[in-house]
Amino acid sequence: MFPDLADFGRRYTAALAALLQQLDYTVVESIANQLIRAHAEGRRVYVVGNGGSAATAAHLVCDLGKNTASERVPGIRVISLTDNVPISTALSNDHGYDTIFERQLRTLVEPGDVVMAISASGNSPNVANALKAARELGAVTIGLLGFDGGAARALSDVALVVESFNYGQVEDAHMVVGHVLAQHLRQRFAAE
Question: Model-level pTM greater than 0.85?
């Protein structure tokens, strides 16, 4: 027999709270520092992900772009490569799904830019290919990852790994980290 929803919800959120408490916030600070550097230098931040992580990428872009801006300071120059359906389907159709982010990055990235990959498993070929291309092009690579970090962990200059194999809780934690980053940077930029 299944537990009732209230019991299941309490256990799920308790496990999520424990994961959030175990996160290495010094790594989150390193991510923030790369975003601060990119902002100060007028660099761009590109964010990639599949499925739920694509939704997290789009949400993070909204928060970092809009919520870090003020009347005195522009927001972070941040772009989600998951949001353009026509380019994604064209690249996928003509060159294969594994290349949809890499090919966009080869057109857009300049040295000093930041490429952030969001992936629960860290093993999506299109994410790994994006990180490889980003490194070749001189970008700083950041991974918001889960499980054991997968292939993306070794391809990330800064990797935050949510050590869980529960997709939902990994994705929840990534969303919380995105909100921590956006709200921290908003306050920091406003104080400067």
Answer: yes
